[in-house]
Write the C-alpha cells for this entry.
Amino acid sequence: MNNIPQTTSDPQTTPDKPKKKSTSMRYFQLVILVGIVAAIYLSFNGNVLSTSPELPAMIGSFTLSHVDTGDKAIGEIRGMFGEEISYSKAFIAHYDGTAGGLTIRAGEKRDVADAEGAIDAVVAGIQRGEKKGYTGLTRATVEGRTVYSLKVNGMLNNLYQSGNKVMWVEIMEGDPSRVLADVIRAFGDAPSRPNAAAPAQPAAASSKGSAALPVPKSQVQTNEGGSVTIEVTWEAQQPSSNSLRLAVIMDTHSVDLDKYDMKKTAALRNDKGRQVAPAAWEGPPGGGHHRSGALVFPATDGGTPLIEPGTKYVELVIRDVASVKERVLRWDLESKL
C-alpha cells in the first residue's frame, strides 16, 4: 500500500481574511482630496480666470504679448500705487510695439467708491512727494475721463478710474495722447451712453434748427470753486440735431457730489436769454468725489431752436453746487448753421 502523505488542515494556521479599511477613514480621505481640488480650483479661478478678461489683441499698432495675473500682478501694482492700497484682483497686460511698447496695469477694488478712494490716495501721496521719481503730475480729460499724467522715473504714465478698477497706463512710444485715447476706447472705458445706440429721430420739416449743430473752436470749459472742479466738453459728434450732449466731469477731494441732481441744477441758455432744462442725465447715480456723465438738452425751446444762425454763444449754468450760487461755462459759436 502506497504511503501517501496526508495533509490536514489546522484551523489555527488558516490565513486571516484581509481586513477592510475603516469606512470613516475612507470618507475622511475623500473629503481631504475634494478640499484640495476645490482649493486649487478656487485659487485658479480667482487669480487667473477672473483676472484674465477678454483683452483686446491689438490697441492701435500695439500687439498683446502676455498677461500677468494673480499675486504677481497685485504685488507689482501695489508697489506702484502704494503698499497701503489693497486689491482683490489685478492684471498687467503687456503690448509690444516697434520701440518700447505699452503696459496696462489694472487693480480691482470692491466697488466704485473704493476705486475713487484709491485714486485719491495715490494722487495725494504723489502730491506730498511720497513717491520718489514721480514727477510732473498734471490733470486732463481724455475721452471723457479724468486722467492724471506724470513721469515715473522718466517714463510717461497715466492714472484713471474705470468703474471699480484703478487703471495705470505706461506709454513707452508713440503719441501719448493718441495712444491713451486708443487704450480707453479699446477697454470700453468711455462714459456710458445709454441712448447712443438708439436711432436718431428725424427733425421736423418746419424746424429751423434741423441742420447739424456747430462745434465750438474750444470744446472744453472748466470752472473751479467751492473745492469742486467742473469740466464740461461739448461733444463733436452729437447723437442728433434735436439734442445737445455735454460730457461732464466733477472732481473734488472734500465734497459729496452724490447729493446733487444734475437735472435740477443745470440749464442751457443762449445769448438772447432763451433757456432750456436738461432732458436727461446719462451717468451713474453716484460717484462720491469723482462724478462723470453727460447732460442732454433739447435743441429747441417751445419749437424755437436754441442755436440758430446768428447765435453768438451758449452757456451752461450750474447752480448751487458746493456753495457756489451760479457757475457759468460759455462756448462761443464761430461757425454758422
